[in-house]
Design a protein that fits this description.
This is Lipase. InterPro entries: AB_hydrolase_fold, Lipase_secreted. It holds the Pfam family LIP. 36% of the residues lie in helices and 17% in strands. By secondary structure, it is α/β, with parallel strands linked by helices. The chain folds into two domains: 332 residues, 3-Layer(aba) Sandwich (Rossmann fold), CATH 3.40.50; 90 residues, 434 Repressor (Amino-terminal Domain) (Orthogonal Bundle), CATH 1.10.260.130. An eleven-stranded mixed beta sheet has the order 1-2-3-4-6-5-7-8-9-10-11, sandwiched between helices. Strand 9, helix 12 and strand 10 form a beta-alpha-beta unit. Helix 2 packs across helix 15. The longest helix is centred in the last third of the chain and has 19 residues. The N and C termini lie far apart (43 Å).
Length: 450
């Protein structure tokens, strides 16, 4: 289906609705499933993708406890589902108080590794002051969001899994991300220009969502000036990841994906209902309510083969399951913006072999790819260690600096790059200020990674 005609809506507001709310009293935020802010107004389906339906100011806090010295704006906006149907999405936007007035303020969409179904893991909830979201990865990634703000960029942090936490769904995360950027640019009081350069960044589950945005943006949002996308360890093949992680330390992650996908693909739910034991069905219902870290720690070493009534591989080979695995695999389209792909060779969660295959697919389609294939790091370590390199790469894209016309590939580990430690020192300063609740001034981290 061609969604390329989803043009910008210059009106940033939805007539007849309470459009904006000031910062609410300092009470504990309500979970998304119970918060009326997340419910779109009647008739929103007729608005164009990216139309702002409602907005409010919210207080952010590190780990929900340490208030920050800035106010964020949350936007409810019209977006699109995997099947092209109207949906409402939410993004949390922070605009720097200090800007370069000589050019449009760059906009970066940062995709957190939500990796869960539970609403308490959504960034729009987990980043707020008073949020009870122990085990939500977004609360830790707030430190990198702060680093992007220190660069002088506006940051959009979308709930890219949608209102129901459909982790692993194809295409839809990309629509939510791009419409979140549209909404931020459409919201007049944020002061973001329609022609502002746009960058995308995410790691792991956030890298997967970012990859979908990079793959669909050329058709879905051609008017956005997406100048670069950083795909940090994207889960390129969830089918392979399921087989590899099942029964491992991280077996809770594939179980969470299965729980989410049963809501997206009725054919997969039919397989689960037919073959899962009562214990298996109960486990999937329980895991939907857990945060990411809780699920991982609770289900260490779990073998889903013991929760079905037939050999697991036999079930995985059924046409219904194979069709789902094929649909959720990256590489169905070639990214139009340049991409930086960061992947650890010794990654225990995302296989470097899957990323190598994705790279080949992108390059054969003519994508402009920079591939950092780190020889020393592993999954959790590489994200912060590669942050200085990532921010420098995005800064160069925002500045319009040229890239090589051919795929570039590096193996030199970030752990052996002196500039990494200069950048990490600055990241440590930013993190200390966030943890202490002090103001983070504009001082680009990327300048330390030359």
């Amino acid at each position: 289906m061609d969604l390329g005609n989803a043009a910008r809506d210059t009106g940033a507001e939805w007539i007849g609705q309470p459009l904006h709310e000031d910062v609410a009293p300092r009470t504990r935020p309500v979970l998304p499933s119970r918060d009326p802010f997340y419910q779109p107004p009647a008739g929103y389906e007729h608005a164009r993708p990216g139309t702002v339906l409602r907005s409010r100011n919210v207080e952010l806090a590190f780990l929900g406890l340490v208030p920050q010295k800035f106010t964020a704006t949350q936007l409810l906006y019209r977006t699109t589902s995997m099947n092209g149907e109207p949906q409402a999405g939410v993004t949390t936007v922070v605009v720097p108080t200090q800007r370069d007035t000589t050019r449009p303020c760059p906009v970066m969409s940062y995709q957190c590794a939500i990796d869960a179904v539970a609403g308490r893991c959504f960034p729009s909830y987990a980043l707020r002051r008073g949020a009870k979201a122990i085990g939500a990865l977004a609360q830790l990634e707030f430190l990198l969001i702060a680093a992007a703000l220190a660069e002088g960029w506006a940051v959009s942090v979308p709930d890219h899994e949608g209102a129901d936490g459909f982790w692993g769904t194809p295409y839809e995360p990309g629509y939510h991300i791009l419409d979140g950027v549209r909404a931020a640019q459409n919201c007049e009081r944020l002061g973001l220009a329609a022609n502002a350069p746009v960058g995308l960044w995410g790691y792991s589950g956030g890298g997967l969502a970012t990859a979908w945005a990079a793959e669909v943006c050329g058709d879905y949002a051609p008017e956005l000036d997406v100048v670069g996308a950083v795909l940090g360890s994207p889960v390129a093949d969830l089918g392979h990841a399921f087989r590899r992680l099942n029964g491992s330390f991280f077996s809770g992650l594939p179980a969470m994906v299965v729980a989410a996908l049963t809501h997206t693909f009725p054919e997969l739910d039919e397989v689960i209902q037919e073959h899962a034991t009562e214990e298996g069905k109960a486990m999937l219902l329980r895991i939907e309510k857990m945060t990411t870290a809780h699920a991982v720690l609770r289900w260490i070493g779990m073998d889903m083969g013991k929760l079905v009534d037939a050999p697991l591989e036999q079930i995985l080979q059924t046409p219904q399951v194979q069709a789902v695995f094929d649909r959720i695999k990256l590489g169905t389209a070639v990214p139009t913006p340049p991409v930086l792909i960061v992947q650890a060779v010794h990654d225990r969660i995302v296989s470097v072999d899957d990323i190598d295959v994705l790279i080949e697919s992108y390059c054969s389609g003519g994508a402009n790819v920079t591939y950092h294939r780190d020889m020393f790091s592993e999954h959790m370590l590489l994200h912060p260690m590669s942050a200085p390199m990532t921010l420098r790469w995005l800064r160069d894209r925002f500045a319009g600096r040229p890239l090589s016309a051919h795929m570039t590939r590096t193996k030199w580990p970030t752990l052996l790059n002196p500039s990494t430690y200069r950048g990490m020192l600055r990241l440590g300063v930013i993190s200390a200020k966030v943890i202490a609740g002090r103001r983070v001034e504009r001082r680009p981290l990327s300048q330390f990674d030359q």
